[in-house]
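Repro case for the chain-ordering regression, as requested:
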Amino acid sequence: MPHITIEYAILVPVLILQIFLFPLTTGWLMNTWVDSRRSLALQEAASHLGSIMQQMYFSLSHDTILAGSVTQKPDVPLYIENNPYTGNATLRTVVDEAQNSSKILDITFRLENTGITTTTRVILGQNALWKNSTFVSNSANTCIVAEKFENGTILLSFGG
Amino acid sequence: MAGSTIDHLVSVTAFLAAILIFISLFNQILQTAAMYQRHRSLAMKCSDLLDNMLLSPGIPSDWGQTNVTPTGFGLQDPEFTQYRLSAFSLMRLLSSVGAPVYYPKTNQWYSNVTVGFGNFLLTSFSEAINYSTASRLLGINGTYGFQLTITPIVTLSISEIQSKEPLRIAVNVTGRGFPLANAAVSYCFLTVDLKGAYPAYKTTYGTVYTDEKGSTLLEFSEITKEDTSYALIAYAQLSGLIGVGYHQRVSSTGQYVMPFVDNIAEGRVIIAHSWDVHGGDNPAEIAYNATFVLLAEDFTLREVPLGADKVDKVNYGEGQPYKNVTIPTHNPGILVITYKKSAVEGGVIMMPWGISAMAFPVVFGEDPSGKEWVATDIRQVIVNDIAYQATLALWSLEGYQVIR
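-- result from build under test --
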């Protein structure tokens, strides 16, 4: 009889521990996976948007393109796992002596309800301008707007 | 009692083993899923990056024809839109396949895109854009590695069938695995005359058509000796698809002249004695005569006059300076230099001015072999009317673990 009591005294806590340990382990693994998946999806969308903006800029920058405005609806997902994402950008002139004639647009995207953020960088020419605006992925009219002026400057912004 | 204890021990061990197996399998499944997503993301990045390279001319847009270091990387021809690349921007990329060549008289290294004897493209390192600069300008420094390969789509295989009386040369035109039947082949045949103090040359131009097998035979009855040096440059054209091929025969490969691209903006090319670069036996002064040909809009080859420096002599060793020739245009063409070492020893060498003029391939970046997972994407592009295929291989430098 005493043996059985000792065995139960050891096993019952072990079993109770398993009840907690099992879902905790599963939850930890799933959270890691979900965070990784969301981060990657956000990075992918950010990189693609940056690429689209750079291509729009260079298309308009061509000498044969006259003043005007172009709107591009990007082919990025509206939601990442049911969460919308937003983007803001800042334009800075490169101070590096070797890169003294270009500007860099730093775009920061944030996945709402998660705290996941990512930044992508777009290299543009000296004639690039940025209009302060926010990209909202689930907005019905989300787009990228590029406007070329008579003096050759190109104003980029998020629309929608 | 003992039986009950053993039962418990076995059951607890089995339970713990089951837990461990579950965790490891579950983790493995998640790792596989994460890897799949990373690969998908890499493929998307590869496509975007290739478009960014090919659909933007870079900053400044004419960096390919100047000596400046660009502040934005792009290979598009600034005079065109879509997938049309600049032959000169491509020429400024530091080749990752040919062994660099050192020329002591300028104390400089040169990027080497040489394709066989006599077909040189040696661009000064000070003019060339290296991989780390391009990587930084593309914003992928430290995060992705890449290799960009530009290869011609149309191949012209030129081979000598009969060496004299008449000289017969077979030209075979093929696309990607199929012959180009009824393609128009415009050619420039240049023969070297070693009788005078300087080598003279005679050019013959013509156009022929390929048969259903993509082949055509050229005959030159004026070639009566086996040691007559010549060069043949041929352009094949079919429905907008254009390719280039070349072939030459020389009577001296021991001593010759080597062209080094010294200044792209000014079109200055150094003419060096080969002995100064890689030595050799019985060196002697070499006389040369340079000419420049380009493909006109009607797909015929035209000669462009060079300055007074086109004919000269170059000697080897210390105290003997190299010579220069200046190409007066930034239209892609071929610099053809006939050379003469003695009355019976001479030949002809060629150098493309703009990578497309001789359909030279470009390999730029790191070697993707041995990398963990490489995404590739391709585009069909045009480089000064010559059809090429651009391939980008991209891989991550950040690893593939789930937890970052």
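Ordering looks correct now. The CA atoms of residues 13 and 74 of chain A lie 56 Å apart.
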